[in-house]
Structures are given as C-alpha cells and as structure tokens.
Amino acid sequence: MDRDQLRQRLQFYQDLGFKQIYRRDATAIAEPVTAPVAALPDPLPTTNIEMAKLPDVSLPPMAPAGDSLLRIIEDIGDCHRCRLHEKRNKIVFGVGNEQAKLVFVGEGPGADEDAQGIPFVGRAGQLLTQMIEGTSKKEGIPLLRADVYICNVVKCRPPENRTPEADEMEICGQFLFRQLSAIQPKAICALGSTAAKALLGGKDGVTRLRGRWHKWRDIPLIVTYHPSYLLRPYNQDAKREAWEDLKKVLHFVYD
Ligand code: SF4
C-alpha cells in the first residue's frame, strides 16, 4: 500500500467515525494501536504524511463500490478482533433479504442465536417476527420476516448477555456499517439503546430517541425498543409505542 492509498484509507475510517484502528492478528485479542486515526491531522494533508510515525497495521478492507455481504463475511473470517470471540460458538452475521428495503439492527446475539448462528431466533426474535408480520398484515402491507434484513451491532455473544463494551462495538461496528452500506436500505430500525448508540452516537436512550426520524448517513432511521425489553410484562406502554414506531417505518418504506 503506498502513501496515497494509506491516506485515503485512513480518511475513509475517519469519515466513518472510527477513532482507533486495530491490528488484524488471528492469534491474539486485538489491541488498539498506539496512534489512533483521530491523532492524524484533520483534515489529513495530501502530501508529506509521516509514514515512519504510522504503526505497522493491516487495515480491514474499505467498503468499496461493489462491496457485498459475502465479501464482508469473508473478511470477518474466524474473527478474533475483539474479546467477544473467546466464548462464542458461532458468529452471527445477519439474515434476510440482501436487497431489503428495511434493516433491523439489534444489540448482539443471545444464547439461542449463538447456538444457531442466526440473529433473533429466541423469544425476543419470535416477538420481532410477530411484530414485523403481524403489524404489516394489519396495515395491509404484504411483508414477511424474510423480506427484511436483520443483524446486530456485535456478531458474537457477549458473556452473560451483557451489553457490548464501547471498544467491542467500535471494532465490530465496521462490519455493521459495511452491511448497511452494501444493502443500502430505504430505512433502518434500531432496536434498543445499544443499536441507537452504535448508529447515531450520543448517549440518549430509546425513550428520548424514539418517535421521530434520525439518519445514519443519508438513510432514514427510526429507534424503537428492543423486543427483549418488550417481553417484560410491565412494559405495556412500551409495547404500544413500539407498534407505533413499527407502523411508521413500515408505511414509510412500503407505501
Ligand atoms: S464481536 Fe465482531 S469484532 Fe468481535 S470477535 Fe466477534 S466478529 Fe470479531
């Protein structure tokens, strides 16, 4: 990789919001390199980059024109880039229509998903399926779960179903961003605060973010509750609000 290519690639990651880049090392947990992308001059100069100061890293591929889900899966490989690889059984990449107009993004795999390698197949997943298919049927929209695309911020199950750490989200987020860039849906539905934070940044939770449109890059994005939150019996108001959010995004995409 020559100097211009390296500059373009670092600029690309900086544009995506990445502040650190990581060594691709299949034998060890990825460690942050000592010179984060954010430490580079902003804007990056077009000449005289101090190559000697840059760490010797193997950057993950950019999301070039023609990027595809298959290529992203190949790039993930037997991923050891973050500590979540340690206890996973299966990498849970995503499922659904690769040309979906609507993508749902959750937090991370649970036990059932980790065992099967498919997102949203446990109780929360069954509820999500009911929400998608039941709401669209009531609204007169012919839509099945298989017509949308479903994935998570992190592809490996966090131990004890804990919330993914910020560095895990940042490392694995590159694959989520590439998935969304490759699919180019008409809208995104972020399920829960973790997905919202990964896609929008900031610290606001679902209750502050839901009910209005946001954008991930230029793609309209709705935030709603994660189905696992809706499974709790005392969350009746949240269920009603989630159905409202879902109706809004379904009509926007499919009317
Ligand atoms: S969570 Fe993502 S980055 Fe971490 S090991 Fe799994 S696939 Fe790799």
N→C terminal distance: 46 Å
What is the H/E order?
Answer: HHEEHHEHEHHEEHH
Low-pLDDT sequence parts? 24-61
What percent of the residues sit in helical stretches (DSSP H or I)?
25-40%
- Count of helices? 9
Estimated structural class: alpha/beta
Q: How many strand units?
A: 6
Note the beta-strand portion. Answer: 5-15%
Largest sheet: 6 strands, mixed
The coarse overall form would be globular
Bound molecules: iron/sulfur cluster
- The largest beta-sheet arranges its strands as 1-3-2-4-6-5
Q: Compute the CA-based radius of gyration.
A: 19 Å
Arithmetic mean pLDDT: 85
Task: Characterize this entry briefly.
With 255 residues, this protein is of the alpha/beta class.
Outline the fold blueprint.
Elements: H1 3-16, H2 69-76, E1 95-96, E2 102-106, H3 111-116, H4 123-138, E3 149-152, H5 166-183, E4 187-191, H6 193-200, H7 206-209, E5 214-216, E6 219-224, H8 227-230, H9 236-254
Parallel strand pairs: 2-3, 2-4, 4-6
Antiparallel strand pairs: 1-3, 5-6
Helix pairs in contact: 4-9
The structure holds iron/sulfur cluster (SF4).
The site of iron/sulfur cluster has 13 residues, from α5.
Question: What would your notes on this structure say?
Answer:
With 255 residues, this protein is an alpha/beta fold. Helix content is 38%, strand content 10%. It contains 9 helices and 6 strands. The chain has helices at 3-16, 69-76, 111-116, 123-138, 166-183, 193-200, 206-209, 227-230, 236-254, and strands at residues 95-96, 102-106, 149-152, 187-191, 214-216, 219-224. A 6-stranded mixed sheet has the order 1-3-2-4-6-5, sandwiched between helices. A hairpin with a 2-residue loop joins strand 5 (214-216) and strand 6 (219-224). Helix 4 crosses helix 9. The radius of gyration is 19 Å and the shape is globular. The protein starts with a helix and ends with a helix. The structure holds iron/sulfur cluster. Iron/sulfur cluster is lined by residues 76, 79, 81-82, 84-85, 91, 154-156, 168, 171-172.
